């Protein structure tokens, strides 16, 4: 039973984008690998995605203007593309966060409901 | 806004086409490098660290597809990719490409040409403002399109469905240019003709009701654009100039716009004159004769009125006229018909014929699709391994199908382009084809935008149709099966496949067309052997109207005598004669015949109507018409002697019930005519008509200025024609010759429909034959290839040649047989349609059927020979080693 629970989840695209935005918001500019590591750490390996799938999401966010990127050198001297949140990205994060919280609250209420409450 | 931004970025990416993978590759390298470093720090060996890093990164191909999908416009990009790939695949199999493009070009081309003609002659309304509301009013009999003027006036005033109704009559008119008269087609029109059509003049004005309000009122004429340009060199001062119309001075009041060529598609007038001037121009007055049916009515339906409403209203008008004028209109019926092709007289058969040809061309295209579909199916089967691999590495079946359809559409598009080009050239050629006739006949079938749109749609549809035939194959491709097994053992060949059915249909179609072609050719051959009642071979005709050179009724007989003498004096001319017209020419006239003892010469009491000819004494000799009894005319049958007539057998039988009629009298209004001779029957109006009555009168007793000079030389026409021209010019250099040509050439127009039908059938038959050959060859070759191993084993087990052949080609032979029988049955069913176009055509014609069967056998032998040879060469040891 536990084994079953520990199976890795597919991450919905929108969720992954939100995680990327939040990571960049908290930690400042990061390269793709670092973003992937952070998401992995925070989700406690539960969301160990195929790390490569992050890149199409990064590209899409950049095309939407939520993030921007530049080549730079990483802490251990490797060239990498660093992503940072733009102002539009901050706004997007705020909206998405609000949407998410609303959804969450609504779902939570549904789960709290017991049969006698509806009577 | 965000979506828009993204679209824009993608468009830019798509357009500039930066190195697609560059950025992803860099990201990937950096990512995997960083992960590897970390793995090493965690204690892995460098190799293991790199491997683990790559594993964790995930399936590169899938990510790349995602990445690209984000980056650009995937559908367009995939399509471009498909197209590029298709070109590469097609280049790799040039034989397949050439064969399929050629097949499709011919099949699509046949359809585009057929549609081009159909569109130009039938579908496209006359090029007039709201031309689809213009209709002709005619009687219910398809060929009876003429209406008398008094009836016209009543129909015009009493109907409630036409906003305007005009009358016009086609006339040969001599237009004086620089002192000589040129023969042209002219329309005599009522004054409301141009206002009804809503045509605006290019110069000056067009004819108005005021020009046509009284007999010989205003002598005014409108010229066509072509007439103005060619005959008057585009003279800008043409308006107001006086030209002679049949020797009468007419004032040109205007020029019609360039695109307007009257309301008949084949006969373009160069001049329009008021119909009230009829008596002056043609020297014969019919405007007040209710029984004289010799002009055509066209009108514009009121908005919102459909033809059935107009028909109901016209029926009411006709019934009223029949009550009011029982003598002339007792049997009058009226209805509308599409204008442009002499109402339904020519329109009905042309529409039927062209629709039939279009249908057959469609069948040929279907056969081509079946053929190519078969080829595609075979190719798909041969590419099973490639398709299997592609599915195994993650391509979707939809993607593969799309690829196959792209290939088919590319082939069809290429074929469509080639076909459009060919059709354009062909139709332009047909348009400028000089069709032999007494006066120029137009055949304008230049393709318009509709035709090209049709070609494009047809090409796309064809491509899709061919491309989706292998759908089932692609869907059932199982990569495991394909990759494991060799492609030989396939037991499904015992069942009848889609491909077999397609081939059988194709063969049936081919057999139908081949049989139809043979039947048509045989019919055409026989048509030329039908007794015409005259011998056109070797005779030269010169048509002219001495009226146009200024001769009056008093002098025309004299000048005709001089012309005849001049031509007879040419060395090498055996004989010559006059006639007002010749049988089977476009110019035929009828007269009512009354029974002996009649005193009531009303139209309604006549016995029948007969073709009449006014001929000079030598006519029967020159025309080769046999005199069966009595005598021919002589110079003594003139104004001073009793009136005489010669009739044909049918005339004698219909009026007297016997052919022994020499010496009997025929009542005519105001006189009695003695029948002095009986001649053989002939064909007068059409080749397909039943024996019709005809009567001949001496031209000296019935003077006529518009005549044909028949010349019977003892040398070829090409040598004698210039001499005749000189002889005529020697009598009067101002006398215009309408035509001067060999009689068989003049008859070309009569046989034109039959010849056109035969040519069309022949071309479609040849196409179908070609398709059958490639189809049968394709299936036979394919079957043999697939079953080579089985055949090898059979040979190894001691099978005889005949058994090997039966195994290899039995099914093909069966399909050929079944298809041919079906085709022959269809052909005999289609014979009735054919008989209406090609005279004497009959599907119950043993030589034609034998020829068709032999052709089908030959097709079978031709196309199966090579595969059969390969099957016989099956060498067991070799084949088994190959596996």
Task: Please characterize this protein's 3D structure.
The complex is a heterodimer of chains A (119) and B (883). Chain A is α+β, with helices and mostly antiparallel strands and 119 residues long. A three-stranded antiparallel beta sheet of chain A has the order 1-3-2. Chain A has helices at residues 2-6, 13-27, 32-42, 54-63, 87-112, and strands at residues 30-31, 67-73, 79-85. Chain A has five helices and three strands, in the order H-H-E-H-H-E-E-H. In chain A, helix 2 (13-27) crosses helix 3 (32-42), helix 2 crosses helix 4 (54-63) and helix 2 (13-27) packs across helix 5. Chain B has 883 residues and is of the alpha+beta class. In chain B, strands 13, 14, 15, 16, 17, 18 and 19 form a seven-stranded mixed beta sheet that branches. Chain A binds chain B through residues 31-34, 36, 49-53, 55-56, 59-60, 63-65, 74, 76, 78-81, and chain B through 2, 5-6, 9-10, 23-24, 26-28, 30-31, 33-35, 37, 56-60, 63, 66-67, 69-71.
Summary tags:
heterodimer, A: 119 residues, three-stranded antiparallel beta sheet, elongated, disordered N terminus, B: 883 residues, alpha+beta, seven-stranded mixed beta sheet, six-stranded mixed β-barrel, 29 helices
What does the secondary structure layout of this molecule look like, with pairings?
The complex is a heterodimer of chains A (119) and B (883).
Chain A: H1 2-6, H2 13-27, E1 30-31, H3 32-42, H4 54-63, E2 67-73, E3 79-85, H5 87-112
Helix pairs in contact in A: 2-3, 2-4, 2-5
Chain B: H1 2-16, H2 22-41, H3 46-57, H4 60-71, H5 74-92, H6 94-123, E1 134-138, H7 149-158, E2 162-177, E3 180-189, H8 193-197, E4 203-204, E5 220-223, H9 225-231, E6 242-245, E7 248-255, E8 271-274, H10 278-282, E9 296-301, H11 307-324, H12 326-329, E10 335-337, H13 343-382, H14 384-392, H15 397-431, H16 449-468, H17 471-476, H18 479-484, H19 498-529, E11 540-545, H20 553-568, E12 573-579, E13 590-593, E14 608-615, H21 619-623, E15 627-630, E16 644-648, H22 649-656, E17 665-668, E18 671-679, E19 694-698, E20 706-713, H23 717-731, E21 737-742, H24 743-746, H25 748-786, H26 788-796, H27 801-837, H28 846-872, H29 876-882
Helix pairs in contact in B: 2-3, 5-15, 6-13, 6-15, 6-16, 6-25, 7-11, 13-16, 13-19, 13-25, 15-16, 19-25, 19-27, 19-28, 20-23, 25-27, 25-28, 26-29, 27-28
């Amino acid at each position: 039973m536990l084994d079953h629970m520990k199976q890795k989840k597919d991450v919905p695209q929108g969720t992954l984008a939100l995680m990327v935005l939040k990571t960049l918001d908290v930690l400042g500019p990061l390269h793709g690998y670092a973003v992937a590591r952070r998401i992995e750490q925070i989700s406690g390996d539960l969301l160990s995605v195929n790390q490569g799938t992050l890149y199409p999401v990064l590209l899409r966010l950049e095309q939407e203007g939520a993030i921007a990127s530049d080549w730079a050198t990483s802490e251990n001297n490797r060239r990498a593309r660093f992503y940072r949140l733009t102002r539009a990205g901050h706004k997007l994060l705020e909206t998405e966060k609000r949407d998410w919280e609303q959804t969450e609250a609504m779902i939570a209420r549904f789960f709290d409901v017991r049969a006698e409450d509806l009577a | 806004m965000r979506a828009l931004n993204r679209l824009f970025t993608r468009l830019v990416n798509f357009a500039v086409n930066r190195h697609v993978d560059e950025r992803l590759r860099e990201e990937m390298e950096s990512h995997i490098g960083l992960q590897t470093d970390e793995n090493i720090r965690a204690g892995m060996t460098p190799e293991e660290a790199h491997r683990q890093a790559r594993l964790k990164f995930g399936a590169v191909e899938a990510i790349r597809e995602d990445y690209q999908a984000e980056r650009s416009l995937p559908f367009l990009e995939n399509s471009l990719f498909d197209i590029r790939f298709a070109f590469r695949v097609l280049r790799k199999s040039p034989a397949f490409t050439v064969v399929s493009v050629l097949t499709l070009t011919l099949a699509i081309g046949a359809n585009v040409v057929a549609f081009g003609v159909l569109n130009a002659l039938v579908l496209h309304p006359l090029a007039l403002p709201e031309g689809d509301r213009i209709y002709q009013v005619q009687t219910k009999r398809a060929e009876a399109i003429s209406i008398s003027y008094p009836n016209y006036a009543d129909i015009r005033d009493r109907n409630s469905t036409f906003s305007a109704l005009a009358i016009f009559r086609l006339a040969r008119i001599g237009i004086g240019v620089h002192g000589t008269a040129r023969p042209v087609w002219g329309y005599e029109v009522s004054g409301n003709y141009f206002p009804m059509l809503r045509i605006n003049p290019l110069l000056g004005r067009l004819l108005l009701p005021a020009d046509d309000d009284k007999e010989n009122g205003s002598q005014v004429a409108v010229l066509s654009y072509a007439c103005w340009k060619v005959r008057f060199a585009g003279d800008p001062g043409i308006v107001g100039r006086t030209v002679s119309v049949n020797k009468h001075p007419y004032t040109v009041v205007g020029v019609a716009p360039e695109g307007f060529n009257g309301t008949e598609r084949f006969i373009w007038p160069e001049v329009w004159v008021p119909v009230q001037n009829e008596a002056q121009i043609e020297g014969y007055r019919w405007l007040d004769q209710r029984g004289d049916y010799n002009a055509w009515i066209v009108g514009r339906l009121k908005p919102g009125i459909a033809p059935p409403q107009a028909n109901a209203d016209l029926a009411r008008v006709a019934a009223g006229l029949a009550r009011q004028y029982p003598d002339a209109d007792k049997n009058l019926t009226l209805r509308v018909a599409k204008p442009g092709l002499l109402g339904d007289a020519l329109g009905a058969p042309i529409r039927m014929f062209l629709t039939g040809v279009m249908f057959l061309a469609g069948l040929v295209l279907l056969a081509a699709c079946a053929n190519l579909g078969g080829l595609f199916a075979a190719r798909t089967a041969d590419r099973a391994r490639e398709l299997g691999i592609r599915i195994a590495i993650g391509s979707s079946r939809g993607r593969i199908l799309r690829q196959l359809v792209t290939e088919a559409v590319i082939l069809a598009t290429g074929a469509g382009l080639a076909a459009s080009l060919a059709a354009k050239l062909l139709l332009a050629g047909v348009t400028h084809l000089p069709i032999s006739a007494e006066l120029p006949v137009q055949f304008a079938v230049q393709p318009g935008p509709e035709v090209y749109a049709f070609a494009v749609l047809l090409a796309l549809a064809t491509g899709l149709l061919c491309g989706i035939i292998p759908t089932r194959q692609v869907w059932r491709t199982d990569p495991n099966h394909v990759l494991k097994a060799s492609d030989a053992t396939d037991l499904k060949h015992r069942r009848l496949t889609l491909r077999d059915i397609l081939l059988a249909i194709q063969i049936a179609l081919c057999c139908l067309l081949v049989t139809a072609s043979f039947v048509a050719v045989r019919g055409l051959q026989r048509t030329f052997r039908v007794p015409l009642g005259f011998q056109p071979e070797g005779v030269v005709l010169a048509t002219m109207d001495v009226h146009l050179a200024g001769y009056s009724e008093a002098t025309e007989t004299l000048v005709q005598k001089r012309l005849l003498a001049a031509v007879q004096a040419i060395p090498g001319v055996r004989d010559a004669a006059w006639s007002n017209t010749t049988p089977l020419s476009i110019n035929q006239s009828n007269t009512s015949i009354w029974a002996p003892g009649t005193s009531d010469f009303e139209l309604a009491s006549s016995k029948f109507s007969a073709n009449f000819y006014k001929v000079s004494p030598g006519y029967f000799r020159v025309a080769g018409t046999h005199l069966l009894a009595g005598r021919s005319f002589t110079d003594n049958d003139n104004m001073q002697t009793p009136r005489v007539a010669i009739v044909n057998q049918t005339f004698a039988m219909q009026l007297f019930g016997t052919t022994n009629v020499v010496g009997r009298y025929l009542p005519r209004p105001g006189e009695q005519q003695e029948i002095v001779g009986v001649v053989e029957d002939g064909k007068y109006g059409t080749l397909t008509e039943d024996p019709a009555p005809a009567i001949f009168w001496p031209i000296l007793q019935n003077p006529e200025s518009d005549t044909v000079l028949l010349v019977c030389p003892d040398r070829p026409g090409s040598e004698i024609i210039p001499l005749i021209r000189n002889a005529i010019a020697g009598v009067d250099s101002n006398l215009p010759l309408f035509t001067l040509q060999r009689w068989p050439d003049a008859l070309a127009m009569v046989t034109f429909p039959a010849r056109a039908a035969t040519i069309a059938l022949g071309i479609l038959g040849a196409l179908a034959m070609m398709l059958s050959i490639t189809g049968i060859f394709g299936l036979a070759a394919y079957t043999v290839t697939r079953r080579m191993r089985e055949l090898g084993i059979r040979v190894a087990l001691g099978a005889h040649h005949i058994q090997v052949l039966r195994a290899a080609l039995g099914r093909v032979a069966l399909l050929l047989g079944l298809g041919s029988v079906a085709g022959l049955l269809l052909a005999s069913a289609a014979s009735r349609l054919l008989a209406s176009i090609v005279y004497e055509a009959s599907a119950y014609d043993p030589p034609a059927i034998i020829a068709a069967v032999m052709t089908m056998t030959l097709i079978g032998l031709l196309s199966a020979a090579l595969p059969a040879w390969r099957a016989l060469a099956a060498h067991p040891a070799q084949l088994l080693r190959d596996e």
